[in-house]
Structure formats: C-alpha cells, structure tokens
Amino acid sequence: MRSKKERLAQAGLLELGGILLVAPLSALVTGHDLASMGSLAVVMSTLAVIWSTVWNWMFDRWVPTRQRSAIQRIVQALGFELGLVLVTVFIVAAWLDLGLWQALLLDLGFVAFFLVWAMIFNPLFDAVMSRLLARKAAREQQLAPHNTR
C-alpha cells in the first residue's frame, strides 16, 4: 500500500509535470500566450484535484468496496471526467474568450493530454519509488544489528 506521503508526492508531481508540459503545448496549439495557458492549467489542475477528492469520496459511498468490477471502474473514471469537463468548459470559455464549442474541444484536449501523461508518468513514478524503497530497505537491513546465536 502507498503511504499518504507517497500518494501526495505522486499526485503533486503528476499535476506539476502536466502543467509544465501542457501550458507551452496548449499555448503553441491555440495561439494564446503562455501566461494565460499556464494560469489556466494551474486553475484546471487545482479543480481536478479537488473534484477528484469529492468524486471519489461520493463514489466510495455509492460503491463501498475496493473489489470493483471493470464496469464500475469505467463508470468511476467517466463520472470524474464528465464532472470535471462540465465545470471547466465554462472556465475555459471565459478565460480565453471562446465559444462553448471551442472551449469544449480545448477542454477535451486537456483531458486527452492528461490521460496520456498519466499513463506515462504513473509507471515511471512506480519504478522510481520501487527502486528508492528497495534501496531504503537494503540500507536498513545493513544497519540492523545482526542476530548472533
């Protein structure tokens, strides 16, 4: 199981890395300035973290088990994304002075980006953490007093 500290590190690094990547990419694609896209990315990332906490808490009440079926996992993921887009599409439209259709397309681009980014980041994070934890365990074993009988 992951510790709370590890979960916070993973979420924080995922969002920070995503912001650092998506801000210049979206500025390039949309023609909006980096400051606008960067600040929008920070706002959207913050909302995503808050909504994730709320949505997963609600979903845990509706489906109170850790042994969820694939359909339940899909519903959980789609519910999160749909809820997020329903809020952020209006923010994107107002922030960048776009129509709702253009804002929706851009917002879906953000969703697609973060989906791919998470699929790249999470295995890398897990690999790094596995190595760090293995090194820590090896050091602790070396420092432990040897059992002599």
Number of helices: 4
Helix fraction by DSSP (H/I, runs of at least 4): over 70%
Average residue pLDDT: 89
Largest sheet entry: none
Tell me the Rg in angstroms: 20 Å
Class computed from helices, strands and strand pairing:
mainly alpha
- How many strands appear in the DSSP assignment? 0
Q: Would you identify the regions where 5 or more consecutive residues have pLDDT less than 50?
A: none
Distance between the termini: 34 Å
Structure, briefly:
With 149 residues, the chain is mainly alpha-helical.
Structure characterization notes:
By secondary structure, this protein is an all-alpha fold. 85% of the residues lie in helices and 0% in strands. It has four helices and no strands. Helix 1 (4-30) crosses helix 2 (34-62), helix 1 runs antiparallel to helix 4 and helix 2 (34-62) runs antiparallel to helix 3. The longest helix has 44 residues, at 100-143. The radius of gyration is 20 Å and the shape is globular.
